[in-house]
Amino acid sequence: MILFNSDYIEGAHPAILEALVRTNFEQTPGYGEDRFCEEAREIIRRHCGNSELGVQFLVGGTQTNVTVIDALLRSYQGVISADSGHINVHETGAPEATGHKIIAVPSPDGRLTLQQIRDCYDGHWNDPVHEHTVQPGMVYLSCPAENGLIYTKKELTEISDFCRTHGLYLFIDGARLGYGLQAEGCDFTLADLARLCDVFYIGGTKVGALFGEAVVFSDKEMQRSFRYAIKQHGGMLAKGRLLGIQFAELLRGGDDCLYFKLARRADEFAMRLRAAFEKRGVPMWIPSVTNMQFPALTKAQQEKLAEKYLFEVWGRYDDERDVVRFCTSWATSEEAVATLCNDIMNL
User: Fold this and answer.
1) What is the DSSP string of 309-346?
2) Residue 117: other Cβ atoms inside 10 A
3) Taking Cα atoms as reference points, which of 120, 191, 201, 186 lies closest to residue 154?
């Protein structure tokens, strides 16, 4: 069975494993205060073009989302999110367990628009009894969105300007950020995100690391206090070096770093799958430009491909077809892609 159901089904890139073995017996301070974490921080700051940024490391996406949201918001504030946003659908209510309601906004293509954010914000403050409802305090964007679409720099800039004018934090979930940054047509960079967002994170778990997310922020109070929030939420890894080593390996080397190479390769493979489906006449649910592709397959086509491949059923497309997700990863092989493309053409 060849797995195309997720992008974190393999272990880690060999360069990371080699680095972990090579440094295994070196003694370091704990809790992310070692030389490896500091090296990774400096590398990330260089990518972002800002030597004053705060950078902290956590283990996984849900832990990161919950810690950031709870650290920044007051107890009566909530988060504006697309209704398909990860924090609203796939985190078992974790942010809401800390008291912060997800203010879910219907979004057919998985992205929030400036107008939707404006309407949500104005709807609250124009309500004469607004103090009886959760106050919007943050805008949460997944980038890429859950369906593989990305924002433009213009869209991000407009949303950022609105958030800063109206006192809303802008937080970008970057669990799959590498795949977005390397997608065809992406016109923003890590430096743009560092300038436009209050906080975002660079996902390692889904882009070549064993585990880990690097949280990036500029706010001075957050730099002073965020480690308290990490500790309080059980996120302070005693062997923090394990995170620093991984991000240093992934991001060392500027624009030609391993992180970008792995993500670009996965995107290219996904585009080959999309081209095969389209050539075969299979409709695509949405024009994803990242490592997730969403063909609409009949039951017979699903059963045929399921003999050899694992993929995820996403939802109904029409009376005859379901939307399914095929996901390439940093470790997907050329052979696996070629075999699947051939089998697609024989559906």
Assistant:
1) EE-EEEEE-SSSEEEEEEE--TT--HHHHHHHHHHHHT
2) 22
3) 186
How many whole angstroms separate alpha carbon 186 and alpha carbon 152? Answer: 7
Closest C-alpha among 288, 279, 281 to residue 314: 288
- Cα separation of 140 and 45, whole Å? 22
pTM: 0.96
**Looking at the chain, how many residues does it have?**
347
Q: Which of 319, 285, 337, 334 is nearest to 84 (CA)?
A: 285
Query: Stretch 106-116: mean pLDDT, rounded?
Result: 93
Task: Using CB atoms within 10 Å of the CB of residue 201, give its burial: 0 to 12 exposed, 13 to 18 middle, 19+ buried.
Answer: buried
Question: Do the Cβ atoms of 280 and 345 come closer than 8 Å?
Answer: yes
Look at the block and give the residue holding tokens 């997730």.
292
Please report how the helices 153-166 and 114-125 are oriented relative to each other, as an axis angle in degrees rounded to 10. 20
What pLDDT band is residue 109 in, cutting at 50, 70 and 90?
confident
| DSSP letters for 64-94 | HHHHHHHHHS-TTEEEEEETT-HHHHSSTTH
Q: Tell me the CA distances in angstroms from 341 to 4, 275, 306, 347, one per residue in order.
A: 12, 9, 14, 10
pLDDT tens, 47-103?
999 999 999 999 999 999 999 999 999 999 999 999 999 999 999 999 999 999 999
Q: Is the torsion defined by CA of 104, 107, 113, 114 positive or negative?
A: negative
Neighbours of 305 (CB within 10 A): 20
